[in-house]
Amino acid sequence: MRVSPLFILWLLATGAQAQPTRPNIILIVADDLGYGHLGCYHAGARVPTPHLDALARQGTRFTRFYAGSPVCAPSRCALMTGKHMGHAYIRHNGDVPLRPQDTTLTERLKAAGYATGMFGKWGLGPEETTGAPQHKGWDEYLGYLHHRHAHNHQTDHLWQVRRGQLTRLPVDSTVFTQELFTTGALDFLNRHRAGPFFLYLPFTLVHAELAAPEADVAPFRHPDGSSKLGPETPFRQLPPPSLYRSQPQPHATFAAMLTRLDRDVGRLLERLRVLGLERNTLVIFTSDNGPGPEGGSDPAFFDANGPLRGIKRDVYEGGIRVPMLVRGPGVPAGRVSSAPFALWDLPATLCQLAGTTPPAGDGLTQVGLWQGRAKPDPDRIFFWQYREGLLRQAVTQGNWKLVRHKSAGKPEQLELFDLAHDEGETTNLADQQPERVIRLKTLLLAAQRPPENPQFDWSSSER
């Protein structure tokens, strides 16, 4: 049968316009990366990040995106379950695993036909627990199960999931584990190029301990071996239970770690281009919380929180506002958005794009926001809390933010900030607007349920 040339042209034209309805998804979550660490967020950033800056230009850069918590494990719980810290099961760092009833984003995507792979730090359930990765939707996994193990960027073992089984995998302790995670991710892309896939990369950079291969540190040293980022104050290993080893040049080493993170993101983006996956792959880059001070990381030297107040463990903006870059189908390039949303929105957002139901939680889909078709709800409530001695809580509604600090047996401390005019939270307006303080405190207290885990029972006396 002879086919008309016009029909062939029609097929080519319509085929060029057709797009698969379900994108591949790559989610990269850096560890302890601050708002001011990236050049695309802060003109004063000390370390160039050209690949991440390019990603920002190719997609949309969000300037008011929030982590789930100012520390690691609860923030990752928010990401996986879609619940903020008033409702999440895991509300603190520790050994608490996800339960069988804590449905994850990954389980939903796997049930929808996505191949799922993770390379990096899990932190939501050690081996032989209900939160171990093979129970939470992961087809493939290579990395650290526990955040304390992940403090060591060189180790003699990692954990691996293959064919539904979790095993302890011996590795060469001289190898920088970031290289294992990146090469594993590149291999995953090669094998699952037909899609759809969900590739989750919870990289351990730039969290302490401060360590990097000599080849990565060398560009930040003078020919005589001294640091280009001096003056250096050597970090000395503290007595146990500290897990961070001594580091004579913490500034140069941290710069090497950040540069390595940026370069590895560039390697992933280049592999997408080579495989022809750019048009139908959503790439998301963010961080689990604000910059940390551990191991000599020195947020002040690197101006790691940029214009924001606070660092890791704070519920001020510097502890919870983090970079968020999104590139992919339907996402405008070169756009900057100040619309607020949070890590617990990702399950609802990604599940909508995947055509499946998200886990029940507090998150809202942000597909319209990402694609520039929708505006944020000005009355939406965002809530955070964290306790390490002092109970720290915060709530925002629109541009207004209330911060509450409370210690058992002591009066509470309340601070009110207008983020529209004071994103650095320098001026406490609580005394000037007592009625607004009352309204926001009411919302703050209503945002939390008593924790189901006794470990997080902070007692009604602190309300």
How many E-type strands? 15
- The domain count comes to 2
Give the count of helical stretches.
Answer: 12
* CATH 4th-level superfamily of the largest domain: Alkaline Phosphatase, subunit A
CA-based gyration radius: 22 Å
CATH hierarchy, class of the largest domain? Alpha Beta
Structural class: alpha/beta
Predict the CATH topology of the largest domain: Alkaline Phosphatase, subunit A
Distance between the amino and carboxyl termini: 79 Å
Question: What is the beta-strand fraction?
Answer: 15-25%
Unreliable residue stretches? 1-20
**Helical content, roughly?**
25-40%
Shape: globular
Mean residue pLDDT? 93
For this entry, give a set of tags.
25% helix, Alkaline Phosphatase, subunit A, 463 residues, four-stranded antiparallel β-sheet, eleven-stranded mixed β-sheet, alpha/beta, 12 helices, Arylsulfatase, C-terminal domain, disordered N terminus
Could you characterize the architecture of this molecule?
With 463 residues, the chain is of the alpha/beta class. The protein has twelve helices and 15 strands. The strands form two sheets. Strands 1, 2, 3, 4, 5, 6, 7, 8, 9, 10 and 11 form an eleven-stranded mixed β-sheet that branches. Strand 5 and strand 6 (165-170) form a beta hairpin. The termini are far apart.
